[in-house]
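Figure 2 data, in text form.
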Amino acid sequence: MYAVFDPISQRCALASAGHPWPALVTTAGAVEFPGLTPGAPLGIDGAPYESYEMTLSGGDLLVLYSAGLLAADVGGPPGHGADRLRAALGSAGVPELAAEPDRAGGLDAVCDALLQRLPPHRSGDVALLVTRSRGPDADRHATWDVPAEPEAVGQARSLTGDKLTEWGLDELEYTAQLLVSELVTNAVRYGNPPIRLRLILDRRLICEVSDGSSTSPHVRRALKTDEGGRGLFLVTQLAELWGTRYDARGKAVWAELPLPAEA
């Protein structure tokens, strides 16, 4: 089971390779399961995989588990394990725990409540992972639309510098502006509109540029006589981590910078 969660838009995209779909418990107490058949297990050639996208609300619980948690009793009807899980998620105080993030026990209490409500007659290994959706505060991220023209690179640098000053991260300004310049330049030259710049202040500073093209960027070593081709190489040298994320709308190239110790 693979999930990609965007904490700002609160969108979560999921794909399954033969694994049971997770359950969603909303803060209102509703229990939902994606209505899709899991894809084939990994290793089967030519098997298509269908993704499912949902929008979460702050505080919703996403419950992931191994198939052993759903193993029905011998002779039980098909799907009985999923029905029992749905009943357990709708009772035993799980919705109340979802609605009260600061309640004693937190997510550990959700796991304990589930395991107590489900019958002990389970086969195979059992894994249970409960996550709570949350997003950064509104003043910890910023997003701008970037015109698909060379002049936009300078605008992106200025926006980055102003935001880092606002966040008290002047020490990172030069490096972050250089990263943003290279990412925006690549998007303008080789990508498609719409182009967006996003800065996120979390445990690290994340600089992200998205565009409407799914073409993958490549790092290459430029010759001494080349006038360009060093953009992504500079990104790899300056960023602590970087990568590319794809979705149905295109791609996003992101880079992370560690925060100064005093921050």
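Caption note: The radius of gyration is 23 Å.
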